[in-house]
Specification:
Elements lengths: L3 E12 L2 E12 L3 E5 L6 H8 L7 E6 L2 E2 L4 H6 L1 E5 L10 H11 L4 H15 L14 H12 L6 E5 L7 H16 L3 E5 L3 H4 L4 E6 L2 E6 L1 H7 L5 H16 L1
Helix pairs in contact: 3-4, 5-6
Keywords: ATP-binding, Nucleotide-binding
Organism: Flavobacterium nitrogenifigens
Protein name: ABC-2 type transport system ATP-binding protein
């Protein structure tokens, strides 16, 4: 598993007779921006919860940052960052308090928190807002701050669940500049998104359909394989293939 941030082999999660994740296999290299795509109910959130150490698989194998998802979940959690579209910051805490709280949770020392908090707030241009409640920030700023908090402890991998949902196109581009910088710093980025233009920003993409990995490759290779001019076209062809199979 040298130079591999994530390794999955036949990973399965079953609820009764229903297989939410059905024998998925893939690898993610260190420093890679890996897109994990699929419609609601495709199984991507269930798979992400397993990889984040929040749920046990039914069968199969997976290692995250070199740790086993069955018996090293706490070590996984210490080596990753996580950002959710729905909940990443506390609205009733200030910007500085949010940074200090989550940095503490991730185990960053107090001297480091003090020094790096000042640098982060300066980088984001939020010096005048540092002591204001996060609840008063525009959504775009919340998301950029949430991402910064998720990588504050310099994790090996950061998991981003629909990180740019609901923000304007300009903020989305700025957010992806932050993702590129994190990857350049050696952080592996595992991201889910329903924006097809964002899928093309990834180094490689895995597309989930009904619990299976239906396709995995670089955006350019997938477009060539399905004779599509965009990732929307790739999804359309995969949906048609899935429909033919079910018929």
């Amino acid at each position: 598993m040298e130079n591999k941030a994530i390794v999955c082999k036949d990973l399965t999660k079953q609820f009764g007779d229903f297989k939410a994740v059905d024998k998925i296999s893939f690898e993610v290299s260190e420093g890679e921006i890996f897109g994990f795509l699929g419609v609601n109910g495709a199984g991507k959130t269930t798979a992400m919860r397993i990889l984040c150490g929040l749920s046990f698989p039914t069968s199969g194998e997976a290692h995250v940052a070199g740790f086993d998802v069955y018996n090293q979940q706490e070590k996984i959690k210490k080596n990753i960052g996580y950002m959710s579209q729905k909940f990443s910051l506390y609205d009733n805490l200030t910007i500085l308090e949010n940074i200090e709280f989550f940095a503490g949770v991730y185990g960053v020392s107090r001297p480091e928190i003090k020094e790096r908090s000042k640098d982060l707030i300066s980088t984001l241009g939020l010096e005048k807002e540092a002591k204001k409640l996060v609840g008063g920030l525009p959504l775009g700023w919340k998301q950029k701050l949430a991402f910064s908090v998720a990588v504050f402890h310099r994790p090996k991998i950061v998991f981003l669940d629909e990180p740019t949902g609901g923000v304007d196109p300009i903020t989305r581009r700025q957010f992806w500049e932050m993702i590129y910088q994190a990857a350049a710093d050696g952080i592996t980025v595992f991201v889910t998104t329903h924006y097809m233009d964002e899928a093309e920003y990834c180094d490689r993409i895995s597309i989930m359909v009904d619990g299976h990995v239906a396709a995995i490759d670089s955006p350019s290779a997938l477009k060539k394989r399905f004779d599509a001019v965009s990732m929307d076209g790739v999804f359309y062809e995969l949906a048609r293939n899935a429909q033919r199979t079910s018929d």
